[in-house]
Amino acid sequence: MAMKSTPARHIAALIERIGRLSHTSSHADGLLPVQWEILRYLDRANRFSCTPAAVTAYLGLTKGTVSQSLNTLEARGLLRKQVDPKDRRGRRLSLSAKGRLLLRRDPLAESIAAIDGLTKKSQTALADSLQAMLSARLDAQGRQPFGQCHTCTYFTEVHDDGDPHYCSLLQEALSADDAEAICIEQTAS
């Protein structure tokens, strides 16, 4: 006997199917889907969130899986690991020029193009709905949200010392690029 169809069940099935389609196309250029996710994350994350621990928290994977993937991406010349100047035991990650170039061929572009084909009103409604769903799932699992800096309670629009923005949690000046990036420390305002 089939389960009763409900709008929630239908939407969940659609999301799962779209995810599977994206996952399948993410084997492009000899990379695994998780490796594409890491490259995308590093492209969107601010300088405070480009660490192996932050990547692990964002993706919700094991340290071992992330570590292996980071090593592969580094060996392929797609990212760089550098000693963190504030904590010599830590590592900072950054995309290499080759990694940035590869992201221009991101298999996720097909999904982006499909979303671009929607009206602005539909895009906003979809984004709001998916964000609410993601937030509920993250809350239920006790995981971090990783929102944009400019939406954080610790974000200051204009800083007294002349820098464009400021993070009062980390007590660091923020650039305009930082304000748009995602951050591991983000707490929605």
Overall description:
The protein is an alpha+beta fold. The chain has eight helices and five strands; from the N terminus they run H-H-H-H-E-E-H-H-H-E-E-E-H. The strands form two sheets. A three-stranded antiparallel sheet has the order 3-4-5. It has a two-stranded antiparallel ribbon with strand order 1-2. Strand 1 and strand 2 (87-95) form a beta hairpin. Helix 3 packs across helix 4 (63-75). The longest helix has 22 residues, at 120-141.
Q: Quickly count the domains.
A: 2
Task: Give the rounded overall mean pLDDT.
Answer: 90
Q: Write down the overall geometry.
A: globular
Structural class: alpha+beta
Gap from first CA to last CA: 46 Å
What is the radius of gyration?
Answer: 18 Å
Largest sheet: 3 strands, antiparallel
Could you tell me the CATH topology label of the largest domain.
Arc Repressor Mutant, subunit A
Number of helices: 8
DSSP helix fraction: 40-55%
Strand content: 5-15%
- Output the helix-strand order: HHHHEEHHHEEEH
The CATH H-level superfamily of the largest domain is: Winged helix-like DNA-binding domain superfamily/Winged helix DNA-binding domain
* CATH architecture field of the largest domain: Orthogonal Bundle
Can you tell me the CATH class of the largest domain? Answer: Mainly Alpha
Q: Which spans of ≥5 residues are poorly predicted at pLDDT below 50?
A: none
Strand order of the largest sheet: 3-4-5
